[in-house]
Amino acid sequence: MAIEANFSWLQLKPAQFLHRYSFSTTFLFPRLLNFTDLEIKKKSFKFRCRSSQVDDEGYLLDAPESIGDGFSFSGGKYSDGSSPSDEWFKQGKIVKALPVFGTGEKAKDPIFGLAMGGSSQASDDVFRWFCVERGNAANPSVILVHGFPSQAYSYRKALPVLAKDYHVIAFDWLGFGFSDKPQPRYGFDYTLDEYVSSLDALISELVEDKVSIVVQGYFAPVVVKYASNHQDKLNDLILLNPPLMDNHANLPSTLSIFSNFLLGEIFSQDPLRASDKALTSCGPYKMKEEDAMVYRRPYLTSGSSGFALNAISRAMRKQLKSYVGVMRKMLSSEDWKVRTTVCWGQRDRWLSYDGVEDFCKSSNHKLMELPMAGHHVQEDSGEELGQIIAGLISRRH
Hints:
The chain is 33% helix and 16% strand. The protein is α/β, with parallel strands linked by helices and 397 residues long. Helix 5 links the parallel strand 9 and strand 10 (234-240). The longest helix is centred in the last third of the chain and has 29 residues, at 304-332. It is globular and about 55 Å long. The protein starts with a strand and ends with a helix.
């Protein structure tokens, strides 16, 4: 049985197309590795992953070997040894939040309709989130929210600083890191409205009392919308390089490429482009290999992370402009009661600083400048950021 793949609009054979654009076939769709011209034989490649159920809570196929996916990575190669990704996973836990309202059907890839692996399938009942929790639960709670695209791992330097005096939690959004990665139309469509609802469900599961929230980058409008509906639950809101101005409402080419039909699907299967380039093209951050392997891990393990990246990129392209406008209006409103600080990495290559200072002054929000940080502030100046957050919150309790 053959599956037809029409590349005629490119006027290139698939192999020529991949060669010309320097893609690594190692990271393309597993079932497309051994194609010839316009025919892909289903039996040409079989991707198998041994796994075992380790407890009643289930396991994540993208998780380290100890959880049952059968893989471990080190230096970009398959390995039987431990990896930085394994060590990071051991520091966290799986939290269930947000009911799954899918069709109950098994997810299929968005190009050829082939059945996808376990990591692409929604949970049967409630979505699973990966969270890292530090500090005494009796202390005031601080939730660290990573940006797009990133992981909770980005806060690894700030976590120990904050844990001295606070109950601090960092989590992976759905579609990222070690959290569930349901495919669109199979339980989660990655719209910004869904992210607001999912954040509400997760925070309700994590903390009962008031909380301070730190959020970085393009997920800031999502968190601000959540905060506007729960102002009585928040002590502080700290925004790290948020898209505040009108000219911030368009994704940079590094991210918008993933929203393109077919080309986005191909690029999103390359972990070097999906993780490394997305992190290093927006500021001075230079990744160490051990850190890079944590970010690459989900993309190396299955195609689900890439397809989730496509979905959120398309949602951002459609909704980001309106969300940025609403966020700016909310933060400027007299009804806004949440104590808000904007921390800005001055070496951001994606978002211009023009207008940010004036906005903060007119809205009466505190502005903190980090001259050595880029867009991903927590990566470039993690310890410094931890100290800034701790200082901002302590002065207000």
